[in-house]
């Protein structure tokens, strides 16, 4: 008499294998989500670098005049990230990219003025860094009067509605110019 598997043993083996296969299939959605988030994080960090680097360079230039730099300025305004919120709806405003581009241009113009035109800066937002990423971004600059430090904050995301819940890239730049002017 040949001994074989009973129907119960075969069913249990199929059940165990099915459970393992279902667990593996459920990991695909997790992996897809993590891959998408990773691409967004890397794209946001690369864009933050492209935006913050020229701003840091301009704010830390040694030919800046203290008489211009010491004045209080905030971009887009003293409300900071709240400027990116549509107060009537409680959602992110319809054009955060345009607002961020204006912040970049205003800040770079201010730094060029603080250097008495001696600082050659490009006031246009570095949009070439986007390379079709489809990222929505925001930029905030704050500086208190007579403070030698400027704070620059940047955020980026694929989904405009989540802009304010994304990580913030922040840098503090100390005045390096001539304090006697």
What is the strand content? 15-25%
Count of discrete domains: 1
Rg computed from alpha carbons, rounded to a whole number of angstroms = 26 Å
Number of helices: 3
Uncertain spans, ≥5 residues at pLDDT below 50? none
Strand order of the biggest β-sheet? 1-4-5-6
Largest sheet: 4 strands, antiparallel
**Overall morphology:** elongated
Reading the helices and strands in chain order gives HHEEEHEEE
Number of strands: 6
Mean pLDDT: 86
Please report the distance between the alpha carbons of the first and last residues: 105 Å
Class of secondary structure makeup:
alpha+beta
Give the proportion of residues in helices. Answer: 40-55%
Question: Mind explaining what this structure looks like?
Answer:
- This protein has a four-stranded antiparallel sheet.
- The chain has 181 residues and is α+β, with helices and mostly antiparallel strands.
- It has one domain (7-174).
- It is elongated and about 105 Å long.
- The protein has helices at residues 7-59, 66-69, 96-114, and strands at 73-75, 85-86, 91-92, 136-143, 149-157, 169-174.
- The mean pLDDT is 86.
- Helix 1 packs parallel to helix 3 (96-114).
Name some characteristics of this structure.
single chain; 181 residues; alpha+beta; 4-stranded antiparallel beta sheet; 17% strand
Q: What's the SSE blueprint?
A:
Blueprint: H1 7-59, H2 66-69, E1 73-75, E2 85-86, E3 91-92, H3 96-114, E4 136-143, E5 149-157, E6 169-174
Antiparallel strand pairs: 1-4, 2-3, 4-5, 5-6
Helix pairs in contact: 1-3
Structure summarized in a few sentences:
The protein is an alpha+beta fold and 181 residues long. It has helices at 7-59, 66-69, 96-114; strands at residues 73-75, 85-86, 91-92, 136-143, 149-157, 169-174. It contains three helices and six strands.
């Amino acid at each position: 008499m040949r001994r074989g598997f009973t129907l119960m043993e075969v069913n249990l083996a199929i059940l165990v294998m099915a459970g393992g296969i279902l667990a593996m299939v459920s990991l695909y959605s997790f992996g897809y989500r993590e891959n998408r988030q990773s691409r967004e994080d890397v794209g946001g960090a690369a864009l933050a670098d492209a935006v913050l680097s020229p701003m840091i360079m301009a704010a830390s230039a040694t030919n800046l005049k203290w008489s211009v730099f010491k004045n209080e300025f905030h971009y887009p305004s003293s409300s900071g990230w709240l400027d990116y919120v549509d107060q009537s709806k409680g959602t992110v405003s319809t054009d955060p990219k345009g607002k961020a581009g204006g912040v970049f241009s205003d800040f770079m113009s201010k730094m060029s003025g603080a250097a008495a035109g001696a600082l050659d800066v490009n006031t246009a937002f570095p949009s070439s860094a986007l390379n079709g990423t489809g990222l929505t971004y925001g930029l905030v600059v704050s500086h208190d009067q007579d403070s030698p430090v400027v704070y620059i904050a940047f955020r980026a995301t694929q989904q405009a509605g989540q802009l304010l819940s994304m990580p913030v890239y922040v840098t503090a730049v100390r005045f390096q110019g001539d304090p006697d002017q």
